[in-house]
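Protein in question quoted in full.
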Amino acid sequence: MPSPNEYRLPFEAPIYEMEARLSEMEANYAKNKAVGDSSGFAEQIRRLRRELANLKRTIYANLEPWQTVQVSRHQNRPQSRDYLDLIFDQFVELHGDRAIGDDKAIITGLGHLGDEKVMFIGHQKGKNLTERTACNFGCAHPEGYRKALLKMRMAAKFRLPIITFIDTPGAYPGIAAEERGQAAIIAENLREMSVIPTPIVCVVIGEGGSGGALGIGVGDRVAMLEHAYYSVISPEGCATILWKSSEHAPKAADALKMTSRDLLRFGVIDEIVAEPLGAAHRDHREAAANLKSFLIHALRGLADLPREELLNRRYEKFRRMGQFLEESSA
């Protein structure tokens, strides 16, 4: 796992300063212990560790929306393939859409989650420039969403629950993608996911941007990791439209109300999955353990629902979102 020190967010500076002090103190403790003079160091180290934990807790409990966006994009944040290795006992990847090709921005395959066989579908951004270029930085083409839909239909045929991990700034916006029906295939996915007769659990693990996120985001249970975001548009895109400059992205992030706490309050998501102290990029294993626990619990809660009730609940879940008024023109 990459060290979080490789990429530092500006608001984390006090954390790194205290961690440096703690490392220095631990080194001095080890040195003095070797010569038999370590009195006082152990208690100082314990006190500093408590202060560090409290500092992390305070900073991450009071993140501004734009800071949450920065955390969700952290280059060391675990991605779908990281979670596949840490959560699933076995995974067999399935490729291709039977029409155009295999979009690496979306991973699909069969996996074992505990005793449960599941169909997995998730965005992948890539870890380095080569991988990110191959994955279009997590922005899927139409063939990626077509691949996802084919695997969902396969899951329905064999009565397998579906798990989706959402982590994309949006669907690929290029001309070629539009020529191949980007909007149409996302709309088809939305329609089909609303009636697929098998449990679907969706989790936003990082970025949840625009239709690219919604294309695999219709489910019976929709959750977010604590420091992810989920929005109709990226903050930069919103700022460019409203204020003609992406420099206003922090203002847009605040206005969009796209953090996990906001969306839980609005009823857009069902649950927030806690991240390790200092966010998921600091401890992949704990983040994966929390996510695995949520997935197992969510699937157990859906397992015994009759097909008709499952679909009715899914329909009503999305119909309840949002508020509107109707007035007669008479």
Observations:
- The mean pLDDT is 90.
- The first strand starts at residue 90 and ends at 94.
- Residues 80 and 232 are 21 Å apart (CA to CA).
- Residues 13-34 form the longest helix (22 residues).
